[in-house]
C-alpha cells in the first residue's frame, strides 16, 4: 500500500459561491496593509515629537503632560490594533478566506478609537481658540456650545459604527455599504470643526493687528501657522470622505483612517513643540510658563513711557546754567507709545 505525498492542493477546499461573495483582497485588505505601513511611519515621527516635547518642555504643568501621555497612549493602542487585525486577516487566516468577513474585535473597534483620537486632538485646537486668543464675548458662548455639540456628534457616529459592527455576523460588501454613511457623517463633522476653529483663530488674530511692523509680522506668522495646521487635517479628512463615497463597499476608508489619526496626533505635538519659536525676544525655550499649551496670544495695551531727550533747536537765545556757561535751548518731549505685550496662555 503506497503512501501519496501531501501537496499544497490538499488545503481545505471552499465553496465557490461563498468565495465569490468575499470582498476583493487587493482593494480591501491590501489597502489596509499599506495604510498600516504608512501609519507606522507617521507613528515613528510621532515618537520623535514625543521625545522632543518631554526633553524640551519638561517644565510644562502636569495637566499638559497627562494630556500628551493620554493622546499618545490611545494612539499606541490604535496602532497595536491595526497590527493585530492585519496579522489575523493576512497570516492566521491565509487558508481560510471565509474568516475575512468575520467582525474581528480589533478591526470593528477602529472607528471608535479614530473618533476618540480626533476628538482629543481637536480639544487642543478648540482650547487654543477659546482661551489662547480672546474671542468676542458675544460669540464665545455660542462657539463653545457649537463645538461641544459637534464633538458629541463625532463620538456618537464612532460609537454607532462600532456597535453596529459587533451586531452583524459578517462584514461583507453590502454591510460595509450600509455602514459607510456613518463614517462619512463623522468625518464631515470633523471637517466642520477644523474649519470653524481655524476661521475663528485667524479672524481673532487679524483683529489684534496693532499697526506696528514687528507685532503685525508676528501675527502674520501665527495666521499662516494656524491655516497650515488646520488645512493639513482638513485635506486628509476630505480624502477619507472621498474614498468612502467612491468605494463604499471597500476598506480604503479604513486605510485612510489609520493615516488620519496619525496626522491629527502629529499636528497637536507639532503645535506644542513649536511654542519655543513663537516666543518673541530672548526668552529661553525651556522657561515658558508651565501652563502654556497654546499659541502666543496677542493682547495689545497702552503703556506710558516718559522719554525726555534733549533736542537741539536753532535759536538765537540761549539759557544760562548755574556755572555761568550757556547752552542751546532744549525741549522736553513726552511720548505716549503703543506696545504689544505677548503673553502665553
Give the overall average pLDDT: 76
Number of helices: 10
Strand content: 5-15%
Q: Which spans of ≥5 residues are poorly predicted at pLDDT below 50?
A: 5-17, 282-293, 295-311, 335-345
Number of strands: 4
Distance between the termini: 86 Å
Topology pattern, helix = H, strand = E: HHHHHHHHHHEEEE
Concise description?
The chain has helices at residues 16-20, 25-56, 62-92, 105-108, 110-132, 137-167, 173-207, 213-246, 252-273, 275-278, and strands spanning 297-304, 318-320, 326-328, 336-343.
Can you describe what's shown?
- Helices cover 64% and strands 6% of the residues.
- The protein has helices spanning 16-20, 25-56, 62-92, 105-108, 110-132, 137-167, 173-207, 213-246, 252-273, 275-278; strands at 297-304, 318-320, 326-328, 336-343.
- The chain has a two-stranded antiparallel ribbon with strand order 1-4.
- Helix 2 packs antiparallel against helix 3, helix 2 packs parallel to helix 9 and helix 8 (213-246) runs antiparallel to helix 9 (252-273).
- The longest helix is centred in the middle third of the chain and has 35 residues, at 173-207.
- The protein is elongated and about 70 Å long.
- The relative contact order is 0.13.
- The model is unreliable at 5-17, 282-293, 295-311 and 335-345 (pLDDT under 50).
